[in-house]
């Protein structure tokens, strides 16, 4: 019996386990999945001149989006689909990460968050702590800080979901139903669940093979 007890702690290694309860589950979003949701993200050849340098392709967006879902532990495919759809819509399929219409200073990231949310988001990122304190009262400078790193730029959607949405909203999203998605858009994002937004969500659900 003593010999068996000594072997028990070694079983995960023998079975090839590579994660521990403290290790986030690594999540991968592929460029092909993103292209299914945002077909115009194949290239930045026709990117708008007023948003020079903001456009990224599906291939460029995939790594930071994967990193964001891993960092914020968004493991539900249904939740991932909702966030990807929101980002694709708000960023014009990854052409923008600043608000140009009408041009609200400090509004942006791929989630196109308000300056208030961006301030809270930036304050939550340990790597930005020192620099954030010196610009925290300047919305445009806070946004500039967030946009320096693609993982912060693309991480806003997952951060918003996990910090701003009520548990009931997340449970609804996890069901994979249209009702759950509408609850997310209306009750958490705070906007209209219109047909344009729904189109991106339907594409995302299909791309990630979400089932109810």
Tell me what the structure shows.
Helix content is 56%, strand content 0%. By secondary structure, it is mostly helical. The chain has one domain (28-44, 54-207): Lysozyme (Orthogonal Bundle). Mean pLDDT is 91; it is low at 1-20. It comes from Aspergillus lucknowensis. Keywords: Signal.
In CATH terms, what is the fold-level topology?
A: Lysozyme
What's the alpha carbon Rg, rounded to whole Å?
19 Å
* Second-tier CATH architecture: Orthogonal Bundle
Proportion of β residues? under 5%
- How far is the first residue's CA from the last residue's CA? 46 Å
Question: Can you count the beta strands?
Answer: 0
Element-by-element helix/strand order: HHHHHHHHHHHH
Indicate the structural class.
Answer: mainly alpha
The CATH class? Mainly Alpha
Total discrete domains: 1
Main sheet: strands, sense, barrel: none
Query: Based on CA inertia axes, which overall geometry fits?
Result: globular
Specify the number of helices.
12
Could you list the spans in which at least 5 consecutive residues all have pLDDT below 50? 1-20
Mean pLDDT: 91
Helical proportion?
55-70%
Keywords: Signal
Protein name: Lysozyme-like domain-containing protein
Signal peptide: 1-16
Give a short overview:
It is built from twelve helices and no strands. The protein has a single domain, classed as Lysozyme (Orthogonal Bundle).
